[in-house]
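subagent[fold] <- orchestrator: predict structure for attached chain, return tokens only, no commentary.
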Amino acid sequence: MRPNLARRKLLEGGVISGPSISFPSPEIVQQALPYEFDFLWLEWQHGGWSEQTLSAALSTCVNAKTTPIVRLPLLDPFWIARVLDLGALGIIIPMVETAQQCEQIVQAAKFPPRGGRSATGFRTALHAGNDFFDYVEHANDEILVVVMVETPTGIGNVREMMAVPDVDCVLIGPYDLSRSVGAASMDDELVQDLVADVAAASKETGVAAGYVTGTVEQAQQRIDQGFRLVTPGHDLSILRNAFESMKAGCDTLAPHGDHS
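subagent[fold] -> orchestrator:
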């Protein structure tokens, strides 16, 4: 099975980065792949993806260096296994609060003896030179498991969550975290104290922590704080910014000279 370069880089202490893609467009995924981001985050929780469009997008990633990751809408063992069968090499599960939930997630993502994932798959063999058995034998070492902490309860349990074998990264969702504590801003001191505790837990345990960022500058700030999975941009904001810039240019257009 081909190596999951993003997972290996993360486990070796490196930083991984990549954009999230909410528009249910396999073509956007295809356009992003030549740039060889560490990962592409297919945003199913809040995006427009369906099983059919995810399948089409994941088919474009089979021979790419970039790791395709799907954020699922919820902790559901059936759908965890399903997106992996469709060809995802990583999963992100939102709103996780306990070590027990982390164990459920790992169980769903890993084949026996570590987990209970059924040994099947729609295109999984293509990740292993078209060898189904090779995929099954090696996938446990290549599937990236990311759990999100977005509540004070989750952050209070973060060290126990990081202690669950095969949880590769604990990722902060800062906006939901700020809402969950009633803060007016993600920069609120209470929120940032919770964020700092996750960074400290990562340093203590050696398990990577991540932070959902929106720009390269924000990503660097969180890397400096100790976070090792970041998102330097999202297709929604990238397109809005591009259209805004284009419209500002269009507003300056005017005829020059006599065209009579």
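orchestrator: received. Logging for downstream: The chain has a mean pLDDT of 96. Strands lie at 16-17, 20-21, 39-43, 67-71, 90-93, 144-149, 169-172, 208-211, 229-230.
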